[in-house]
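During data preparation, a discrete fold description was generated, as reproduced here:
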Amino acid sequence: MNPEDLAELHRLVSEADAFANRPLEEGETSRPITFFTSHLSDDGRRLGWRLVRAFRAQNPGLFLLYDERSLYLEALASIRQ
């Protein structure tokens, strides 16, 4: 991962989070609860998994403690904040 990829991932995560938390539209009284990851673009998912691969390359021992999916979700949640 390079700084440009991380910046793009941050932008895509922010967009997905904004969409998931958008205000109700006129006439809309409710909507299903969704998480920002459900609205992440294909590029966002691809970059998120690239980040997980970078974790593996730099610290393979981390994967003895955590599964890939958990690291993916936690990394995206950290970027979101």
Remarks:
- The chain has one domain: 3-24+32-80.
- The chain has a mean pLDDT of 94.
- The helical segments are 3-20, 42-58, 62-65, 68-80.
